[in-house]
Design goal:
Length: 625
């Protein structure tokens, strides 16, 4: 079927970016307006810390500028995403990015100025931003009514500062890790250098590495690349998988000394900044921004270790499903079931998603319908359009979703996933001031994964075809393996490499390959053949250059499974409290916000529930063999 141009696509399948800017001329007017507003920044710098009223006025003015800057950039980039060859929007996106950078630079004085205030002043501003009791009582427990509006002892504080109280609280919390002006200047000057290890690996991995070629099942030569590697590893032909695996990793073996030096430098950089900012470890520094204790990271690893027998069982089931007498690491990616269902039209896909998510209530369902009908979604692939899928948008306008709908079952799950992000954004924007609407990455994948889990359960309950059920279960099992177990293994590797560096041990390719090889053997168990090649896998993982990030995949998925389990079991107020979580934006720290949905990660319960769900799904799949 010939791909349609954008002009040939019906309007109902295209997003309505006019809801941000009605015309390009309106965009240009806002661009000029922001440049004009930026002329007032020097005067804001003078009055920022004058008093409580001046601070509130300055923060409101800054928020206005940042809002316009966001509108300009998002609109231009999304227009460019419609057709990346469009020179006009290439130019607008570049101009918007430049203006954002200039604005960020001009406003860089804000945090240092607030942190330079005398002890107690910033805390006083926070106290002024929220209802407080003259006698020191908590507004929630005051004996004269329990609510500030009913108690003569309580005052409402400066309502203009209220949207910024959490931001100010974060500044106070970070103060002990902020250095002197001279020290901060030195660290900022080193920023470009500190990014060198990641830049070096990126160039090696995406430009310099040359992968060999292999023959596919039909005997045709295939030049390997990152994308082709995944495709070939899914081949039903085991000889093809084995040859692909060995050929691909040989490229990393050939460059292992250079890659090891780059990663070791990245780890040393993390250790340096942690010590410079007076943290106990690089791990502690990384978790600080989300206010997550190191014990949570350790609990994740311990809980997965305790449940590794389920992973070993998965390996055994995979071996049986593939009809093999032994299993190797190159057998991990090939699907255990083929998709047999015909093509899903976009309308059919949306109906499946709406039915799968009906358990979230009528309001949520109505919003899904609004997303479909109201210009939220850009559906089909067209020449020049950005590939993949995402959800994005600006405060004050409904969220947007970019798709490249292919009509397979994976495309249905993609719709559910991206609409999860969109609903999280919608509810947060509707219920929080702009300063608190944006949520952290730590919780960003929860809503999208809840939708996928709910859709999975709906499909398993309604699908009668055995092959289709096997495919759905295979899809589900792979999520547990890749998102929870494998990412936790990555997280443990990062912990080990940083601990070694902090102990003064040299990070060589031999030491890191041994660490990784031992971990892989532990996580996959005795049922899978151990080989030397998999010990080099760490060398191809770009996430390792953004230290201690991958654990969030495992915790996010676990939280989503726990929430979905509560909803599907009919737990009292589970849906209501989940919507409260979606509505919370960034109004508190991620762990506190998750508690709104009855998820407490501190003791590892969500991870335990997640692994129990993994075992349950595995049992269902095994019964179908």
């Amino acid at each position: 079927m010939e791909e349609k141009t954008r002009e040939q696509i019906d309007k109902r399948y295209k997003w309505t970016l006019e809801d941000i800017y009605a015309t390009d001329e309106a965009w240009e007017q806002d661009y000029k307006r922001l440049e004009k507003l930026m002329e007032d920044i020097p005067s804001l710098q003078k009055t920022l810390t004058k008093d409580e009223k001046s601070l509130a006025a300055a923060l409101a003015a800054i928020e206005k500028m940042e809002h316009i800057a966001g509108d300009l950039f998002v609109y231009a980039r999304m227009r460019r995403d419609e057709d990346n060859a469009n020179a006009a929007y290439q130019a607008r996106a570049a101009r918007a990015m430049d203006l954002n950078v200039r604005l960020g630079s001009a406003l860089s004085f804000v945090s240092p100025a607030l942190l330079a205030l005398k002890p107690g002043v910033l805390e006083g501003y926070i106290g002024a931003a929220v209802p407080h009791c003259k006698k020191g009582r908590d507004p929630k427990t005051c004996k004269k009514g329990g609510h500030c509006s009913k108690c003569s002892n309580h005052t409402h504080g400066n309502r203009q500062l209220a949207p910024y109280d959490f931001m100010l609280k974060e500044l106070v919390r970070s103060k002990k890790h902020v250095l002197s002006k001279k020290e901060e200047r030195l660290l900022s000057m080193a920023a470009d250098i500190s990014g060198a290890p990641k830049d070096i690996f990126t160039m090696i991995d995406n430009a310099d590495l040359k992968f060999g070629s292999v023959k596919d099942a039909d005997g045709k030569d295939v030049q390997l690349s990152h994308g082709k590697y995944i495709v070939m590893m899914q081949s039903p032909d085991r000889a093809v998988r084995k040859n692909t695996y060995e050929t691909y990793y040989q490229s990393y073996k050939d460059m292992i000394n250079t890659i090891s030096a780059a990663y070791a430098a990245s780890v040393k950089k993390d250790v340096f900044y942690a010590r410079a900012r007076k943290f106990g470890s690089a791990l502690e520094k990384s978790l600080f921004s989300d206010n997550v204790p190191v014990s949570l990271y350790d609990n994740l690893i311990e809980t997965i270790h305790k449940n590794l027998p389920t992973m070993y069982r998965y390996v055994d089931v995979r071996k049986k499903a593939l009809g093999l007498s032994d299993l190797a690491m190159y057998d991990i990616y090939t699907p255990l079931a083929k998709e047999t269902h015909g093509e899903y039209s976009y309308e059919q896909s949306m109906e499946l998603v709406k039915k799968g998510l009906a358990v979230l209530g009528g309001e949520y369902g109505a919003l899904l319908q609004e997303a479909q009908d109201g210009g939220w979604i850009d559906v089909y692939e067209t020449p020049g359009k950005t590939s993949g899928a995402y959800s994005w948008g600006v405060f004050g306008v409904h969220p947007y979703v970019l798709l490249n709908h292919r009509g397979d079952l994976d495309s249905v799950f993609t719709i559910a996933h991206e609409l999860g992000h969109a609903m999280h954004t919608y509810y947060s924007n509707q219920n929080q001031p702009e300063a608190k609407a944006g949520y952290e990455i730590f919780v960003a994948e929860v809503a999208s994964t809840v939708n996928e889990v709910l859709l999975t359960h709906y499909l398993l309950e309604t699908e009668q075809d055995a092959d289709a059920r096997r495919y759905i279960l295979n899809h589900y099992l792979d999520q547990f393996r890749t998102t929870v177990v494998r990412q936790t293994m990555f997280a443990e590797f990062e912990k080990m490499t940083h601990a070694a560096a902090e102990a003064g041990e040299a990070l060589t390719h031999e030491s890191m390959c041994k660490m990784y090889g031992d971990l892989n053997a532990l996580y996959y168990g005795p049922q899978i053949a151990r080989d030397d090649t998999i010990s080099y896998e760490w060398a191809r993982i770009p996430h390792f250059y953004n230290a201690f990030y991958v654990y969030k995949y495992a915790t996010g998925f676990s939280c989503a499974v726990k929430i979905a389990s509560d909803i599907l079991s009919g737990k009292k107020d589970a849906v209501r409290d989940y919507i409260r979580f979606l509505s919370s934006g960034g109004s508190d720290y991620p762990l506190e916000l998750l508690k709104l949905a009855h998820v407490d990660l501190a003791g590892g319960e969500p991870v335990e529930v997640c692994m129990q769900e993994f075992a349950k799904a595995l049992g269902e799949f095994e019964e179908m063999l």
